[in-house]
Specification:
The chain is an alpha/beta fold and 250 residues long. It has helices at 7-21, 23-38, 53-59, 83-89, 95-103, 121-132, 143-148, 195-216, 232-243; strands at 43-47, 69-71, 110-114, 136-141, 169-172, 180-182, 191-193.
Length: 250
């Protein structure tokens, strides 16, 4: 058996802590998502930069995922931009707000925000703009990062606010400061980050619970079939016809 120096055990323990301690928050967030489906509205998803943008991508046009997901994608903030460029842009004040304005969030719209650090300008400005426009926020972030980072740290938004300060529902992913959880003998720098493993799991837990609540309400939630499985394109055709005019990234 491969020696992972406890990585899998630690990642699973983090996921289990989310499942055990965040159950009510996941249920409350899923209820907001089910409300959006019942009202025939989109569920918008935003990520505040770097690898958290992958969690947004994980929810979009995904086999077994909700078809009414609207990813507020901005390549400039993603890992598909040059690394130093996205790092600088996620620390740039007002950049996040401009993305929310572009996607034109309206009063009552629901936005799911991923950013496990939860303190940088691209995250906080986006959250402030959403609340200014009357939107609702589900925040997935780490209380450890938000509480343990120094109040005057240069990566913080000038307001000093945390993402959880703006959220209608907060989901703690318990991501440790520094992210990596494996200390390999002979190395000073830890390896083995867990944030994406945990945030992907949270994304799917939200979708599962949302669908469960929809069925409880006698609503059939819109869910993509795999486009690569036999008959997948045919099964997805009705959702594509409905959502392509509404979702900018389809």
């Amino acid at each position: 058996m491969i020696n992972d120096f406890g990585y899998i055990e630690k990642a699973v323990a983090n996921i289990r802590m989310v499942a055990d301690k965040q159950e009510k928050n996941i249920q409350a967030a899923a209820a907001l998502m089910a409300d959006a489906i019942q009202a025939d509205k989109l569920i918008h998803v935003y990520a505040g930069g770097g690898h958290t943008t992958l969690a947004m991508g994980e929810m979009f046009f995904r086999a077994g995922g909700l078809a009414n997901i609207d990813p507020m994608m901005e390549t400039a903030l993603s890992v598909f931009n040059q690394a130093l460029k996205y790092l600088e842009l996620e620390r740039t004040v007002n950049f996040g707000a401009s993305i929310i304005r572009y996607y034109d969030i309206k009063p009552g719209d629901l936005v799911l925000i991923f950013h496990n650090i939860g303190i940088n300008p691209a995250t906080i400005d986006a959250a402030m703009e959403i609340k200014k426009r009357g939107g609702k926020i589900i925040a997935v972030a780490s209380s450890y990062w938000q509480n343990e980072m120094p109040k005057d740290h240069f990566i913080r938004h000038p307001s000093g606010k945390n993402l959880f300060d703006f959220a209608d529902v907060c989901i703690d992913d318990y991501n440790p400061v520094g992210d990596a959880v494996v200390q390999l003998p002979g190395m000073d720098t830890p390896i083995g980050p867990v944030s994406n493993v945990v945030d992907f799991t949270i994304a799917h837990l939200l979708e599962i619970e949302c669908c469960r609540q929809c069925i409880e309400r006698c609503i059939v939630p819109p869910v993509w079939n795999s486009a690569n499985a036999p008959g997948g394109d045919e099964k997805n055709a009705a959702y594509l016809k409905k959502y392509k005019p509404l979702v900018k990234n389809l």
